[in-house]
Amino acid sequence: MTSAAAEQASPRSLPQPLTAICLGLVVVGAAAFGYGLTSDPQSAWLAYHSNFMFYATLSQAGVILACIFVATGAVWPGPVRRIAEGLGAWIPVTLVLAAVGYFGGDYLFEWKREGAVHGKEFWLNETRFYVMDLGILAVMTVLSLAFLKASVRPTLKAAAPAATGFARNMIERWTAGWRGDEEEREASWVRTRNLAPLILLLYAFGYSFLAFDQIMSMEQTWYSNLFGAFIGWGGLLSAVAATALISVLLRKTPGFEDEITKSRLHDLGKLIFGFSIFWMYLFFSQYLVIWYGNVPEETQFLYDRLGPQFLIEKGFSVTAWANAWVDWDWSWARLSQDYGWLSMSVWMCIWILPFWVLLGEVPKRTPWILGPVAGIVLVGFWLERNLLIWPSVLKGDGWAWLGPVQIGVAVGFLGAFTLVFLLYTRIFPSISLPERS
């Protein structure tokens, strides 16, 4: 086996005014959250938790996407892999925010506030919940950082002379014991190939348990074995969308002119197209079984989010089931109940629009089409995290997720995530590009 092509990191200054805008958004978010804690703590913590879950899955799935590239021996991504790795810079922040979330547990989890329902006392208790979840996040953080370090180490040595301050100090630390360019590239290839399958397996199992705990346990009596896969796959699709959007935005910046090719955009577009179909397949796999079984502790979760339109009682015979689709009894008014319109927005952003817009080859290769679609998919997943979390606590109020505090917290998270991404991709270790002769 041979190592990857030679790449070189390129530390440079943070872009302005984007950095200043991000800092301003962080301040706005902190102020909104602080105000929310004094005026409406439940809404403040629900907004915090929704954004926490969105960025936690997005960042971890960025590393997962890079691990998939490594495990499959993919050579087509080029610097696109480095963009995906940059999303993982948020992973240590996720661990810190998860610990902070402990203080809002009483506003999020009924079992923490009032005790678990009979039969779930062993699983839904603070000790098991926080030790296990923080443990999963800690292990994922350590392994992800080890993967990122092994991945970028061969690209750093040549960048040391041009680096200054913090970047130079970190480069010297991360390249201690340098063994030569070729040997370092070979060692990086071996180490990342060993780490990638382990991280992939831990993501599949670990984030399934996080989905069960952080979202599903908000409604104690609801359960779905497929829910962990649904959340994990959604995280991966959001990471692909973020990588595609950033690739489109960077395609004309110095060093990327010949790297973000239409062929690579086409491949990213195919991933978004295919993954969005599978995401909807996972949802429908849950919906159909729950709808057909008609068990109250299962249907309540969907009813609170979809409203009565998609759970109309039609009977249990084969004939009655067939008639349910012949005469669906559609009513737009039903979508205004519960969180119906939010659910429709999620479907539109994540499945309907990507499917029809990216159906052909040309849209996938066209930056001004692929970029907006990828951005809409990301908005859809942010809406979906709100859709999964808010109705578990505030039922029947389809607009509870939207308000000044909620938007303030959201822009604060956006600013912080973007700032961390910029620090990783511009200061240290920075995005690596193929060496040019």
Question: Number of DSSP helices?
Answer: 18
> What is the gyration radius calculated from CA atoms?
23 Å
Number of domains: 1
Shape: globular
Averaged pLDDT: 91
Element string (H = helix, E = strand): EHHHHHHHHHHHHHHHHHHE
What percent of the residues sit in helical stretches (DSSP H or I)? over 70%
Beta fraction: under 5%
The beta-strand count equals 2
- Distance between the amino and carboxyl termini: 24 Å
Strand order of the largest sheet: 1-2
- What class would the helix/strand composition place it in? mainly alpha
Largest sheet data: 2 strands, antiparallel
Spans where pLDDT lies below 50 across 5 or more residues: none
Q: Could you please describe the fold and organization of this structure?
A:
With 437 residues, the chain is mostly helical. The chain is built from 18 helices and 2 strands. It has one domain. A two-stranded antiparallel sheet has the order 1-2. α9 packs across α10 and α10 (227-250) packs antiparallel against α11. The protein starts with 6 loop residues before the first strand and ends with a strand.
